[in-house]
Design brief:
The protein is an alpha/beta fold. Helices cover 50% and strands 13% of the residues. The longest helix has 19 residues.
Length: 307
């Protein structure tokens, strides 16, 4: 068995009573397990460890504390004024630098999809924005009935790079979520076929483990073959090509006038203010209006920094 890697944002373990079950647990509960620079690579390494463990047949992905995963940590990726591949301050921005960074994150999340051993997301409270990408890359999802799932940044400053919504929900319901940025609860997610089960919080662990043990009783080779067959159907429908467009468009959403407005508003007034505007239904500045506001906010930032 491979040596256990060192992680910064999660831990991986093997159930003592059920050695055919491994668990990947996000360990930033104070931040609702928000995604850091290290999270995507940590996921890939944890999946690789579980795949190389001859005793493990199935992997549960879960979050410590009050939520599964609340998306990318905006304190790191949004509020900071430091230059970053996915938040470039120089002009003109380089879309391929952004793409290379975000495509690596996407591929790391997709290690859950490509894992030879089935993966189950155990979702409680929130699986939103990048957290919904992680959950949707898993083969199956068991969800708390009152939990919320969705990709609010489609309203401004984001495009789900894994592009799994259409493949899981079909075009009508995918558009319903992506064109509004609305969230759905576990009951609706089950009704729509997005998740396998939706249960009360106090039943979530039992329901997830029951499903995991049912899968784990099947030989690894059979699980691998059946998963490869289903995955190949999705790949044949163009999943990889769709992800290429989605990842490129994600970069555009963060560097076009509207994305720059959202980022500057976050930097001046804080992420909470920006999110409240984004999600309220209030019209989001666009085009020349967004450019004018960016210029005003840039002036405020320069003044406050003494530049």
């Amino acid at each position: 068995m491979a040596e256990l890697p060192k992680f910064q944002s999660l831990r991986v373990s093997q159930d003592a009573e059920n050695p055919r079950v491994a668990r990947i647990t996000f360990t930033r509960p104070e931040k609702l397990n928000a995604i850091t620079e290290s999270t995507p690579g940590d996921i890939r390494m944890a999946v690789a460890w579980a795949n190389e463990n001859p005793e493990v047949n199935v992997i549960i992905v879960q979050g410590e504390g009050e939520a599964f995963c609340a998306g990318y940590d905006i304190g790191l990726f949004g509020e900071s004024v430091a230059d970053h591949p996915c938040k470039q301050e120089k002009e003109p921005w380089d879309p391929m630098v952004d793409y290379a960074y975000m495509k690596r994150c996407t591929e790391d999340f997709m290690s859950l999809f490509r894992s030879y051993k089935p993966t189950i997301a155990k979702v409680h409270k929130y699986a939103i924005a990048g957290g919904s990408d992680i959950a949707n890359c898993c083969d199956l999802i068991v969800m708390e009935d009152t939990a919320r799932m969705g990709y609010m940044p489609t309203r401004v400053w984001g495009c789900p790079t894994t592009a799994m919504w259409t493949y899981k929900l079909g075009p009508e319901r995918a558009k319903r979520l992506l064109l509004t940025g609305d969230l759905i609860d576990g009951v609706t997610a089950k009704d729509w076929g997005l998740v396998s089960e939706a249960v009360p919080r106090d039943q979530l662990e039992a329901a997830t483990l029951k499903l995991a043990l049912r899968i784990a009783s099947v030989p690894q080779s059979h699980l691998m073959m059946q998963k490869l067959v289903v995955n190949q159907a999705l790949l044949s429908m163009g999943l990889e090509q769709t992800q290429m467009f989605a990842t490129l468009f994600d970069g555009i959403t963060r560097h076009n006038p509207e994305g720059m407005w959202f980022r500057r508003h976050t930097q001046v007034y804080g992420f909470k203010s920006a999110v409240e505007w984004r999600d309220s239904g209030r019209p989001i500045p666009q085009g020349d209006e967004a450019r004018a506001l960016v210029a005003e906010l840039d002036a405020m930032i320069a003044k406050s920094s003494g530049a």
